[in-house]
Design a protein that fits this description.
Layout (H helix, E strand, L loop, with lengths): L2 E9 L4 H5 L5 H24 L4 E4 L1 H6 L1 H9 L3 E4 L12 H19 L5 E2 L10 H7 L4 E2 L10 E5 L13 E7 L8 H5 L2 E2 L4 E2 L5 H18 L2 E8 L1 H4 L2 H16 L3 E2 L2 H11 L6
Parallel strand pairs: 1-2, 1-10, 1-11, 2-3, 4-5, 5-7
Antiparallel strand pairs: 6-7, 8-9
Length: about 280
């Protein structure tokens, strides 16, 4: 019987993403602070529709805004790992990355009573060490790679890419990869962001983006009998009023179309049960 899973995920960065980019003026920080407003709106919407989601929460957010994070847990959502300080692992040494990973997991344990089962890299930029570290710290899944769309797969380690040489694939691991896409992330569609080196224009029509996202689900239904579609959102982005209206419309349409809403941990466990042992 066909089964089409949707994972709603929210990267609850608050101010951490701006601080990691060196954007620490009052106005920049206030943009992250708006995530607290957006988070409550999202929680209310999810509760109204009876949907549990996955919140990727930096340790910074847990320690800086404990009551907002407690509300996420109280409503029964999964809390997953999103670093401590929102610094991309590719910018860290192995020791720095592991220390950040441990510090954030300690904050998650204090909030939820257990370590995170899932991980998402800040800016979706893994280092050469990330997969090894996630395995060493017993994560079930990662959600930072884009090698598929509707079918989770086993994350590899040791891939090699050299200019002028064929691509060399590394070994499969037991870590489940829950693939994502920039096209299914609210940030590039909506957020205006100016850094010292670039400008992200964003500010697209919310209803147009949600219609595109619904079409992605429809295509999954047409092409696979079983699949997982992951949407990535940020409370300080999607939490604007007109975007919340468009998101509510998407949830109604997905429900009517037969979507099965799950947390990423639940979907990863279902995917794991379908996998053969990793190839050597």
């Amino acid at each position: 019987m066909p089964r089409h899973i949707v994972c709603l995920t929210f990267d609850f960065d608050t101010q951490s993403g701006f601080i990691a980019r060196g954007m620490t003026t009052p106005t920049a920080l206030s943009r992250g602070e708006f995530g607290l407003v957006g988070a409550q709106r999202i929680l209310d919407l999810l509760k109204a529709h009876g949907i549990r989601a996955t919140w990727f929460v930096p340790g910074f957010t847990i320690e800086s805004h404990p009551r907002a994070c407690e509300a996420v847990v109280r409503d029964g959502h999964e809390v997953a790992h999103h670093s401590w300080a929102h610094i991309p692992p590719a910018q860290q040494t192995r020791a720095e990355e592991e220390a950040d990973l441990v510090r954030a997991n300690d904050a998650i344990v204090k909030l939820t009573g257990r370590k995170a089962r899932g991980y998402r890299s800040p800016s979706w930029d893994l280092s050469d060490n990330t997969i090894d570290l996630l395995l060493a710290h017993e994560f079930l899944y990662d959600s930072s790679l884009m090698g598929a769309d509707y079918w989770p797969y086993r994350a590899r380690r040791g891939d090699r890419a050299e200019l002028g040489k064929p691509y060399r694939f590394g070994e499969e691991t037991t870590l489940i990869e829950m693939p994502i896409s920039w096209s299914l992330d609210d940030h590039p569609h909506f957020e205006f962001l100016r850094t010292p080196t670039s400008v992200m224009p964003g500010l697209q029509s919310a209803r147009t983006v949600m219609e595109n996202w619904l079409d992605e689900f429809r295509y999954m239904q047409q092409t696979v009998d079983w699949g997982v579609l992951t949407y990535t959102m940020h409370p300080y982005v999607i939490g604007r009023g007109y975007r919340m209206l468009a998101l509510e419309g998407l949830l109604k349409d997905l429900t009517a179309a037969g979507a099965v809403f799950m947390t990423m941990e639940e979907a990863a466990a279902e995917a794991q049960a379908r996998f053969a042992p990793p190839s050597s």
